[in-house]
Design goal:
The chain is an alpha+beta fold. It contains nine helices and 13 strands.
């Protein structure tokens, strides 16, 4: 598939693209870095225009118990801030999620996030980006997370040739992080190289563990300097690049387990499937199942055909 016309990206973000065209674009974007960047930038521009219409905290203003230090960037549904936790004297990332007026489901999403946030806050593992707190600020929801600088696993893999040992070591760390979530009853639902951050020491941390199932999408990469990123949470949106909603199913098609594609209940095995797909891609240079459209991808997977 050739790269879509600019009008297709605009229609994707506005929600006016047909179901078939949307699915084809989602599959294409999974494999095309240039289009991922284009769609990400468009989403951030939309987010910035939304942010202009909403009240945001000023530098030094408290959000919950956290003091805002500066802005890190904008996601599709809110703005990410660098903040300080004065009680524990540590730096955190705060994602402020503005409510969408007139959407009754928005409050349900907030309630689910508050419940799930309490469970996630109990997960303390070296291979998981921690969620510290979830709360409300002037009608908006905020998520306080570990401020974890580094690059995504996808960027880490592409930066230079990596030995099989180094790749396997990073993926074992990812597996340990996922297992910690599973032990706490939390399923990721959208594991992929974009949702892992690797720091300069080679430590890997899984981002957004459990958040995909409660309305929070995979992390934005907020650029702090060339090639660097900070792990932060963003709330899901039908137009969010890094969390696709295909026929009502939440996840990234290329990494989703067959039962996830079918919209069936999933458990830890769905994360294991995604982990295996990502590992095969990292070691062999391509994913085990491919297709130029969503239907072709699902058919190849169902037939067990690479």
């Amino acid at each position: 598939m050739m790269c879509p016309e600019p009008a297709s990206f605009s229609a994707f973000v506005s929600g006016s693209l047909s179901v078939a065209a949307r699915e084809a674009l989602e599959v294409h974007v999974d494999d095309c870095e240039s289009c991922r960047i284009t769609l990400s930038e468009l989403g951030r521009n939309v987010a910035a225009s939304r942010a202009d219409r909403t009240k945001l905290p000023a530098i030094g203003e408290p959000v919950g118990r956290y003091e805002i230090v500066g802005e890190l960037g904008a996601g599709a549904m809110g703005v990410v801030f660098r903040a300080r936790d004065p009680e524990l004297d540590r730096e955190v990332a705060i994602k402020l999620v503005q409510p969408q007026s007139g959407i009754p489901e928005d409050e349900l999403v907030h309630q689910r996030m508050l419940r799930e946030g309490r469970a996630l806050a109990r997960i303390d593992h070296p291979n998981v980006v921690r969620v510290f707190d979830v709360g409300r600020w002037q009608g908006a929801l905020f998520v306080a997370m570990e401020h974890a600088p580094g690059v995504t696993l996808r960027v880490w893999l592409a930066a230079q040739p990596r030995s099989t040992r180094a790749i396997v070591d990073v993926f074992v760390q990812c597996a340990n992080g996922l297992a910690a979530g599973h032990a706490a009853g939390v399923i990721h639902r959208d594991f992929k190289p974009d949702n892992v951050i690797v720091d300069d020491s080679g430590r890997a941390r899984v981002m957004d563990l459990g958040l995909a199932q409660t309305g929070v999408a995979p992390a934005d990469e907020v650029e702090t300097q060339p090639g660097r990123a900070v792990a932060v949470a963003v709330v899901s949106d039908p137009d969010e690049l890094r969390l696709t909603r295909t026929r009502g199913v939440v996840g990234t098609p290329a990494y989703m387990a067959p039962e996830q594609h079918r919209g069936q209940p999933i458990d830890a095995r769905a994360d294991q499937f995604a982990w295996c797909v990502a590992l095969a891609e990292a070691l062999g240079g391509q994913r085990p199942y491919v297709g130029t459209t969503y239907d072709e991808l699902v058919a190849a997977m169902a037939a067990g055909r690479p």
